[in-house]
Amino acid sequence: MSEVFRGGGTLSGDRMAIPVPVLIAGSAVIATRVLSVLLLANELGYEEVMNFIHRSAQSWDSTLIFIASQLIFFLELRCAIAMIRGRNWGRWTFLATQVVVLLYMMVATLTGIYPEIFSISGEDNVRIISSLIAQKLPDMLVLLLVFVPVSSRHYYR
């Protein structure tokens, strides 16, 4: 760590320093995903988490949705680490996961597909869609941080 203070900001002179928008975006993805799982588990409690897992294992379609949600969670974490390390596939894969999640949440909300945890309640479709967009706003900001700034685009070349 002392090399960072003596050298002026990077640990190795061969690699380009991580741009601040990329570092913030990757850290934000990791922090929001881990905190959301912890807060959800705290809100539901042990019994409800076990009931949710048990209900998800009742049929093939709900089991596949549950497994897919876990895979997307871990894929998003992997993408965040890849984005911080300068892997171009990380930001594109994160974009793809956000599109898939947004589409599935819209379908689950508007058609009432199980499980309820992936749907949003609302009075009409306009309010539901605006609430869904508001929930995905932080992820859109992360995508802007890794795609828009010039320093971020140069980092992924």
From TrEMBL:
The chain crosses the membrane at residues 20-42, 62-81, 93-114, 126-148. Keywords: Membrane, Transmembrane, Transmembrane helix. InterPro entries: YbjO_DH-like (IPR019703). This is DUF2593 domain-containing protein.
